[in-house]
Amino acid sequence: MEILNSTLDDVTTILKLYDAARSLQKAKLENGAVVWPEFDETFIAKEINTKSQWKMLIDGEVACVWMTTFSDPQIWEDRNTDPAVYIHRIATNPAFRGRNLVAEIVAWSKQYAAQNHKKYVRLDTVGENHGLVAYYQKSGFDFLGFFNLKDTVGLPAHYNQGPACLFEIVLD
User: Fold this and answer.
1) Helices 41-49, 11-27: inter-axial angle, 10-degree rounding
2) What is the pLDDT of residues 21-71, one digit of tens each?
3) Helices marked H in 40-167
4) pTM of the model
5) Is residue 149 within 8 Å of 159, Cβ to Cβ?
6) 139/48 Cα distance (integer angstroms)
7) In CATH, which of 3.40.630.30, 3.20.20.70, 3.40.50.300, 2.60.120.10 is domain 2-170?
């Protein structure tokens, strides 16, 4: 397994993984899932160019992707002043589902946070998907609760479809 920054050559793969994630979310709508909007190539390219888009390779194949940032004020509001790494849009290649890759991302993100002098690893999701809440808790995150965001202007559209579920890991 290898974790690297995504490159512009990965844009098509990332968009395919987001499509697969949307299909899974649509299948789980009655469980409280919220479906991601479609993201365009320029949106993904911007994240790649700022080195905030990541990929996990297993045997040379992209197993999953995600995005990180060091600031997330619209979602984390007053807590955004805390030194944290924020994880967004984990999308797993269907061929690698069931391998608990989030645990690998958690292990990596703890190291990444420490290297960048951060005290927290944080994650959010939207909607009341209790199965996903339990999964993130099993992966090591503390569930902080459901929150109605005050300002979603400029955020991807799915942030208007339900409460935000906030999760964090406090580093030692």
Assistant:
1) 120
2) 999 998 887 777 889 999 999 999 999 999 999 999 999 999 999 999 999
3) 41-49, 73-76, 101-115, 130-138
4) 0.95
5) yes
6) 26
7) 3.40.630.30
